[in-house]
Amino acid sequence: MSTNGKTSRILQFMAPDERRQFGIETPFHRLAWQMRDILGDGGILKEVVHAGEGPPVPKHASVSIHFSGFIEYSDAPFETTSHLKYPRMMKLGRDVTLYGLELGLLTMKKGEFSRFLFKPKYAYGDLGCPPHIPPLATVLYEVQVLDFLDSAQVDEFMDLSRVRLNAFSLLILLVCGVPDDQFSIVRQDEQNSVSLSTFLNVLDTQRSFGNLCFNKKRYEDARERYKQAMTLLQNRELLDDEEKQRLEEMKLPFLLNLSLTYLKLEKPQKALCYGQKVLDINPQNTKALFRCGQACLEMSDYEKAQDYLTLAQAKKPFDPDINTLLKKLALCYKDYLDKEREMCSKMFSGLKRMEK
Questions:
Q1: Which of 65, 130, 137, 138 has the most CB atoms around its CB within 10 Å?
Q2: Does domain 2-150 have CATH number 1.20.1560.10?
């Protein structure tokens, strides 16, 4: 493309005033006509391509998004997450560094796909970001919100666990060679002061985070979320027997999820450990029996696998997952016995040849 003898490459590095001087109507100018000014100052323009559902992204959310950023006259994005099947969760106010993008996300809903034009003050400023972003550049972002979680309550709760040390204490720690990331101390009493309902909401959010990571095959991240929740449960000071009972029940889904996560991480011994912790709380838990059976099968401990899965089948005789795994166990055990017989046969035949 050329305009007034200037190539599209040159146009990328022309200031907006220069373009107007040449009488050039740029692609972004044409796009802006069909977009909505979300702030009223013309700094962020938005076009909804596909509407989402539910409430908009809250201020302190953690979001999972696909996005691509473009400068004018360029078909290739200067940054994109399109190559990622499961983009990581990003915390608003911390991980989303482009000011305009964060403000734009607050107007979006789950499942929404929108385009934004960000003027320089909401993007890369007067200087741009050489060599990819020219000075005073308006940038186009295409954004899709895959999912989000309101993590404000969790963040506030976790902040209660830390207190900043005074200057003298920091000096002592430095002299003792304590690393920077240890300049905080745990204050469990502050976490214990929150109500049980708030505490349970924090745990539910942690489980939702973990489940979201698990469903996106980010098993290490899921494991950390589940383990954080277990640490909170173990540190909680119990007020009475009723609270103790409720928190014991809350441990079960986290322990079961940890067992399954370790199976996905190909660590069956750890999976068995967490499954057994569930059985310590509730010996009749069918899912725990099934998880322990899975773990034993992965470790080729066929007899223990048979014991766990038989107990699980007795409680749910028509469960397809249990019955399928029992069939797999039977095949694996048969294969194991066949190999044992073959190995013994070769050993005996070798001995006979030596005797001759």
A1: 137
A2: no
